[in-house]
Amino acid sequence: MPRSLRIVAMLFLLVGLHAAYVVVFQLFVRNSININLGLLGFPVYFGLMRYSDRWRRIALLALWISMLLCAIAFVVGLFASGPARLSVVGVYVREVPPTWISLAMIPFAFLLRWQSQVLQRAHIVALFDAPTPHAVQD
Fold first, then answer.
1. Range of the structural domain that residue 125 is part of
2. Average pLDDT, the chain
3. Is residue 51 part of a domain?
């Protein structure tokens, strides 16, 4: 399996793990149910590791939606008035200038774009179309 594809799959796994942590935290600490779409990171990870073209396409859709939301957050951060609430796993940390949100979106957008490009590379797509993808090596 190409290293770049393995990294993309691992990033989806990390998203799934973070989402699971948030769901459990919200359930047991805040006594609230949190349906988190990041949990789709688990099946996307396993689908990419099995060279499932369906899960590759779902991963691309998730990345495109994330890029759109990233762009919206960037613009909102530029034009927002008043401070933004910074919280980690639902726990308030402090207020920050809204431009910090915009600045944080820049490297995130580059990472999302890189992941999307990896999943669209011809040799990566060929792995998902091959009848026996495990025979294809890096």
1. 3-132
2. 89
3. yes
Maximum CA pair distance of the chain? 56
Tokens at 120, concatenated: 């669209």
The number of folded domains in the chain is 1
String of DSSP letters for 49-97: HTT-HHHHHHHHHHHHHHHHHHHHHHHHHHH--SPEEEEETTEEEEEE-
Q: 99 and 77 in contact (C-beta within 8 Å)?
A: yes
Q: Is 106 exposed, middle or buried (0-12, 13-18, 19+ CB in 10 A)?
A: exposed
Contacts of 64 (CB under 8 A, 6+ apart): 116
Q: Dig out the tokens for 20 from the structure.
A: 């699971």
- A 10 A CB-CB count for 113 gives 13
Instruction: For tokens 């149910």, name the residue.
Output: 33
Segment holding 92, helix H or strand E: strand 91-96
Write out pLDDT tens, residues 80-122: 888 888 877 667 788 989 898 899 999 999 999 999 999 999 9
